[in-house]
Amino acid sequence: MPAPIRLRELIRTIRTARTQAEEREMIQKECAAIRSSFREEDNTYRCRNVAKLLYMHMLGYPAHFGQLECLKLIASQKFTDKRIGYLGAMLLLDERQDVHLLMTNCIKKLVPQLVRILKNLIMSGYSPEHDVSGISDPFLQVRILRLLRILGKGDDDSSEAMNDILAQVATNTETSKNVGNAILYETVLTIMDIKSESGLRVLAINILGRFLLNNDKNIRYVALTSLLKTVQTDHNAVQRHRSTIVDCLKDLDVSIKRRAMELSFALVNGNNIRGMMKELLYFLDSCDPDFKADCASGIFLAAEKYAPSKRWHIDTIMRVLTTAGSYVRDDSVPNLIQLITNSVEMHAYTVQRLYKALLDDISQQPLVQVASWCIGEYGDLLVSGQCEEEEPIQVSEDEVLDVLEGLLVSNLSAPVTRGYSLTAIMKLSTRFSSVNRIKKVVSIYGSSIDVELQQRAVEYNALFKKYDHMRPALLERMPIMEKTATNGPAEIVQTNGETDSTILDTKHLPSIIQPASQVNDLLDLLGGNDVVPVIQTAVPTKPASAGGELLDLLGDLSLTGGPTPTPAPSVTLSQPPFLLDGLASQPLFNDIAAGIPPMTAYNKNGIKIEFTFERANPNPNIAVITIHATNSTEADMTEFVFQAAVPKTFQLQLLSPSSNVVPALNQGSVTQVIRVLNPQKQQLRMRVKLTYTHKGSPVQDLAEVNNFPPQSWQ
Amino acid sequence: MMRFLLLFSRQGKLRLQKWFMAFSDRDKKKIIRDVTQMVLVRPPKSCNFLQWRDLKIVYRRYASLYFCCGLEQGDNELLTLELLHRYVELLDQYFGNVCELDIIFNFEKAYFILDEFIIGGEVQETSKASVAKSMEEADSLQETMEEYLNKPTY
């Protein structure tokens, strides 16, 4: 076949065409020639043919058959070929083509060459025109390092080929000038991104550590940024530099302070929480207002996760509220209130400290809101001077009311805060004896200009007059609120004096789905009109006279806090029975019901079910029954499911069981928690249905439980 | 990749602007305004890097001029400082002890030098001698005043 025509000639020929059709004809002829030339695997003219193809592509004609040829050109050793090959790849390919993959692999094979070039750059002598402060061509070096990073990402072989040179660059580069540091920085980034060996990673982190100690601000900034990126993966290594990072918090430069703050939050863990928190609180005191909001939120999160004790947690929160109170985010107020409610034994201490803080300063709204809420709730503890944690202060009822009234009239209080304090005053009417004073205050605000206050005051007034009999019940202590967020129960256990968090590790128990069908079966079988399906107890909606925030809290609060047993499994974590099962201290339920004896509800065919009782405080209408199922036969009972139904006047909720295998020979038991709401104090009756598989065959049984001890429902 | 390079004086007057990515006129003006304001308020001893929107801003002050560029997240800030320094060296080599006045009166030459050094936001020529040689060649192609007047345009 004759030699294909040159590129220039082709271009000249095509330009002589006078019509579109003529041009198309010429191009098609040439394309055919090129195609047959490609088929012949002609090495000599491939470069020329691809160049012609690119020209035709530019005119708008299809040229996809040239892609593979580009690959071959790239693989060739000749520079001219490579040049055209890369150009073709750039023009003809995109991510969707398969040839693209082949090409990437081809480039990957270049790695040894790249490594060699880099080595030469480092070892070679002085080249004046490429030199920057004694380092030859840093721009090229950084470029090669960047390319190595892209090639090595996710690829073991390439990464291995690079290990040596990276180590060499890292150790040999001079760090006295910025240039050297620039190259080191790029090296560190590369090491972090490729699949490097651990020794190399440690080297990289050490380099970053050295950067941190450098006097130059830029270098410290760069180090902090990179550490932030690596802290997720190499947490332990970064921990070693924690003290330096914490020192950076005190730096004068704004950018550095911000980075150091972010990094500090990432480094906080259970071991260093006390020390870190001290530093962070100090930082919060002295930092710019822009930082305060972020810092405060960060501190709250860290405290929530790692607080070593409840008292420490509350102290920390108090500190944040008093120093950066006005910068705290709005949603932290309800979170804090919930936290305080849950630390039952700290109530007296908390309210005392909050009261003292209020005496000092009423300008920080979140602090004032939390404080007035607490005083409203726990005012009686404050006045009786019951605090064990610190020196109890002598406060009279009148002084407390003075403070709360002061909040109402002060110009510094936001309307929301005024609402809080009015509600607090109202709540104190059941806890204090000076009811008349409270009545007077409430009636004054019945004619307040602020509509919200007016509404509250009018409703509270009504509470005093017409509904006085309901007042104690309405205004009694708030029950423990369970967070609907994912770390609700876990958090409570952790703050309870460093209990073993592994018990409660978010072992998301299978959301208790009492499918409607199962329940209906129960209904059918029982056939009675007086049984109702297992439903979640809805909070009896308290009249709107409760304060707005209280209503919100109540809205979130479900007395039982468990998932709805409707077919749609709810997101809220059910209260794992582990909490009740085996933990010596039960922070959630005051065991007033210690006196209720356990009973055997069912004992047949080797399976025995025992009920033990607690009373949920503060609502005495809820009986909490824990069933313990044991198996005295020689075979395990698997797929054990316990269901219960109660008469219509009751409401029942079944939480998830600890497991559904009852081990043989009384080796263990399955526990499950049932909560029964009994507002009318009727005698408790229950029908139970058991299903399980025993020795390979399924077993089903129904029974009625009538022998509840009178104390359980009275 | 560098998105833009700006040179401005201590009073905030723009001396050079190079955009490596397409922005509308409004955007350009806004960027210039914002970046200039941000950089000019920085205290003298502070860090040369800032975070702004999704870009890293790297700046350096040389005498009365601020050299400022906007980088993408993946770029090496320390190297960019070197890059700015290299640009200043090139200017210095060309003009001989360059000062702000040189850049004001010969801004087109400053652009030419920048174009020899950086293309599309990336460094294209790392050799100082090469850049100097290209500038020399291009300059030699420029006609003298007499030649200019006598040469036909077409």
From TrEMBL, chain B:
Any one Gene Ontology cellular component term annotated for this protein: clathrin-coated pit
Domain of life: Eukaryota
GO MF assignments: clathrin adaptor activity
Pfam families: Clat_adaptor_s
GO biological process, one term: intracellular protein transport
Compartment list: Cytoplasmic vesicle membrane; Golgi apparatus; Membrane, Clathrin-coated pit
Keywords attached to this entry: Coated pit, Cytoplasmic vesicle, Golgi apparatus, Membrane, Protein transport, Transport
Lipid metabolism found in the keyword field: no
All residue ranges annotated as the AP complex mu/sigma subunit domain in the record: 1-141
Mode of membrane association: Peripheral membrane protein
Family: Belongs to the adaptor complexes small subunit family.
Subunit structure: Adaptor protein complex 1 (AP-1) is a heterotetramer composed of two large adaptins (gamma-type subunit AP1G1 and beta-type subunit AP1B1), a medium adaptin (mu-type subunit AP1M1 or AP1M2) and a small adaptin (sigma-type subunit AP1S1 or AP1S2 or AP1S3).
The protein, known as: AP complex subunit sigma
Organism: Sinocyclocheilus grahami
Biological classification of the source: Eukaryota, Metazoa, Chordata, Craniata, Vertebrata
Gene: LOC107585762
